Amino acid sequence: MRKINWTEAMLSRLAELYPVETTAHTASLLQIGVTAVKAKARELGLEKLAKNRWLERAGHISRHFDNRSYAEMADDLGVSRTTVSRMARKLGLNRSKAEGYAMSSRVRFEMVRRERRRAIFGLAPLTRIKVISHRAKVRIRSRLKAKGYVTGVHRNILYFTEATCRKARLEAKAARFGLAFLPFPKGEDMPLTNAM
Predict the structure, then answer these.
(1) Which of 48, 59, 62, 77 sees the fewest Cβ atoms within 10 Å?
(2) How far apart are CA 42 and CA 77, in angstroms?
(3) 8 A C-beta contact, residue 66 and residue 40
(4) What is the pLDDT of residues 70-101, one digit of tens each?
(5) Which residues lie across from 151 on neighbouring strands?
């Protein structure tokens, strides 16, 4: 085994690379063996940052395990869902079936809400979940509600009041999608809805 003459440049490069790069990569850049790199790093007291990063991630996972899904924690940490799952298993954290179903239900509900909002504002969907059967109809209905039209129990009927500034072109376009327009009933108790 040959003795390695460590130069100042090699030592500074080792101190720069060893904490963040793999030992094999550091050794190849310094053109020496992996064992020599490990020995010198130990001698200089250098440590890998990955261990510190692992502890930070583990802390985040244990703090948020009860109220965040694996995918949400993975997004927070910038790692894969599988990595979060493995780390949780190593930490001894696990969910019952009921807790897993509740978490999935909450995540799906939020995803559907987000997709509906995107559809209403005419944005492209982020997922392949079909939340609206007729996007154009929902968009035009939303525009009409913003203009002062009122929706009732029947989702295909929009009501206009005396104060509503009627939009003939928009109404004609909406009529092609099956929406009907009626004057707002006076004196009747009509249940209204804001549902999309």
Answers:
(1) 59
(2) 29
(3) no
(4) 999 999 999 999 999 999 998 899 999 999 89
(5) 158
Cα angle value 122/159/115 (rounded, 5°): 25
The length of the chain is 196
| 144 and 136 Cβ atoms separated by less than 8 Å | no
* 155, 145 contact by CB (below 8 A): no
Q: How many helices (H) and strands (E) does the chain have?
A: 9, 3
pLDDT at 188: 59
Q: State the Cα–Cα distance between residues 64 and 75, nearest whole angstrom.
A: 13
Q: Is the dihedral of CA 84, 89, 95, 96 positive or negative?
A: positive
Q: Would you list the domain boundaries of the chain?
A: 8-47, 50-94, 135-183
The C-alpha atoms of residue 118 and residue 179 are separated, in whole angstroms, by 22
pLDDT value for 62: 92
Q: Is 148 left (phi over 0), alpha (psi -120 to 50) or beta?
A: left
DSSP code, position 59: H
Beta strands (DSSP E) in 12-167 are 150-151, 157-160
Residue ranges, the chain, pLDDT below 50 = 194-196
What pLDDT is attached to residue 190?
Answer: 54
Mean pLDDT, rounded, of the chain: 85
